[in-house]
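User: Predict the complex.
Assistant: Input components as received:
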Amino acid sequence: MCALFGTARDISLFRHINRELISDIITQQCAFYKYKLEETKVNIYGEAAEEKYYMGPVLLNCIIERKDKEFIETDLGIDFNFGAIFKFLRDDLLDKNKDFNIDTALYGADLVPEVGDIILYQDGYYEVDNVSANQFFVGKNPDYPNNINPLNPGLEDFGSSISIICETHQIPGDKTGISRERFL
Amino acid sequence: MANVQIWPGSSNFFPGNTPFGFYDNDYQFQQDADKFSTFAARRLGYPIVDVELQDLNFYTAFEEAVTIYGNEVYAYKVIQDYLSLEGVNIGNDVPTVNGNPSLAFSSITPNMGSIIKLSEQYGTEAGTGGNVDWYTGSIALTSSVQDYDLNAWAVGQGYENRDLEIKRVFYESPPAIVKFFDPYAGTGAGTMNMMDSFGWGGYSPAINFVLMPLNYDLQVLQQIEMNDMIRRSNYSFEVQNNKLRIFPIPDGTVPNLYFQFLLKSERLANSISGNTGLIANVSNVPYTNPVYTYINSVGRSWIFEYALTLCKEMLGYVRGKYSTVPIPGSEVILNQQDLLSSSAADKVALIEKLRLYLDETSRTKLLERRSLETDYRQKELSQVPQLIYIA
């Protein structure tokens, strides 16, 4: 016997509600620059001090939680920290061929956020410090159904990994090397 | 799984889209189904917000609302007319609508059939009609024997034991009139009886006629009855569990005692009549679902409103399957409680409104209103100055 709750039909309802809520009601957006690691030149210390390359940007709907500015006193003087958390509906970031993204041009970014990626939000660039995807509905991620599953066959149709949450901090625009004009 | 489609903003009804298909082939229903879907979706917030229902949900609510409307109207009619309908032969006497017997378009004139039927039981017990036969039996009286077992008599006659219910026992004193002695009448029972009692039946006392007032005869009769009651053994009997005890103790002069009875089994059996083709209870009063085309605008308006409450209810259940809906990094509570409580209240209010409306058209209410109208009209007319005509 498979699971009882959290069927794909239920998840579809959540997807509708999430997309309506995030896209039509909250309507917060950001532009996502995916870091091109293979084209970035690094020095002997592993630092990409000279040139960084990014893909994108990709405009995404999300929920943004802005933190207060922090002014930290260090030995070198007063530092500045301004963080933000960008919360994405994971299904929006999956690829276009997913059956729930195939019928619309709005979703299906085919994007995997990683540490080091850059998010543009309100003229500020935010570098991704941490990525987490551990919000599972009914505690199940259908990507791991443990097939062939003799105990609960068909678990791939139950549960959902709802979100991808990126914790970021603001960095100066010159560090990214991304010009605003390109985005506009 | 792909996204399950929710209301896209329009629909296109096809026969077969409703669960029962009661009205699918009704052109007006087909037209109104899509219009209602648009109406309900907009009343629920579309296009400002999504409505997590499909056209099939709207059609289902619409069909249910029409059916409930018909049920309410026809249940009311059944209550109104049941006394006149019980026992009607459905196959022979009820017209058909779309091939099925239905009273939906029939005007029913009240009749007394069931009232008479209800009254038959009283006639049976009173011996003045009814639907159960009374039989006559007799037992031979034995001198000096007071007690007679009528159950045993019944078994001897082929009836079931204890099936008898004695309705009447013919064991009474001779009527006073047969003892009436009228010395002034040359003929008549009184004189002749007296002559017979003395063994002079062949003699004639005389031929005299004196007309006396009737109250004189009545007083003489009462005097005879009182005399018998006080001075003689009064004729009476007791019947308990069909054991008959008679007074006075028979002296052998009366050979048989007659009585009337009915059979309890027949009384029960006669309470049941009919066959499978008759209207026997409210469940087989032949009302089919209403014909949507013929429902007037008042009815359709009620149907739209009721169907909307059903849609609210459905949407409430959809949004309330899970108490919270996960969103990235948090969760939200939708308005399922508001929808459910609102729909429940609306349903009750709409049903009450319809029943009140129907009740106002009951025969009693209509007659009351007509009577009131007449009273008020008379009152108003009485305000008109009555001219005095001088010829």
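Residues 8-175 of chain A form one domain.
Let me know if you want any component modeled separately.
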